[in-house]
Design goal:
This protein is an all-beta fold. The protein is 0% helix and 55% strand. It is globular, with a radius of gyration of 13 Å. The termini are far apart.
Length: 113
């Protein structure tokens, strides 16, 4: 059974950093990603990482966010630096295995002074 559990969200001030964590279980995946959804907006891709460690980022994330896999090897992280109010959203961990997609429950990130 696949399970994705996010943690690490919270309230920060503009310019600060957060690291989100996703604990995955249920086997290997073709890709792990982070998505986000702001109020009234569609869910959007933030970053992806593949088994060969290749990474891809949305334009807004380039240079500020870093996706990685860590120890334990079932963990996926999203390091977010220089956060801005526009980054306020619920962040979701996502995994793909073939045509199947899996989602975590989401973690709230709020950037406000």
């Amino acid at each position: 059974q696949v399970r994705l559990v996010e943690s690490g969200g919270g309230l920060v001030q503009p310019g600060e950093s957060l690291r989100l964590s996703c604990a995955t279980s249920g086997g290997a995946f073709n890709a792990n990603s982070w998505y986000r959804q702001a109020p009234g907006e569609q869910r959007e891709l933030v970053a992806s990482i593949f088994p060969n460690r290749e990474t891809r980022y949305a334009d807004f994330a380039k240079g500020r966010f870093t996706i990685s896999k860590g120890t334990p090897k079932n963990m996926v992280y999203l390091q977010m630096n220089n956060l801005q109010p526009d980054d306020t959203a619920v962040y979701y961990c996502h995994a793909r295995r073939g045509p199947a997609e899996f989602w975590g429950q989401g973690t709230q990130v709020t950037v406000s002074s």
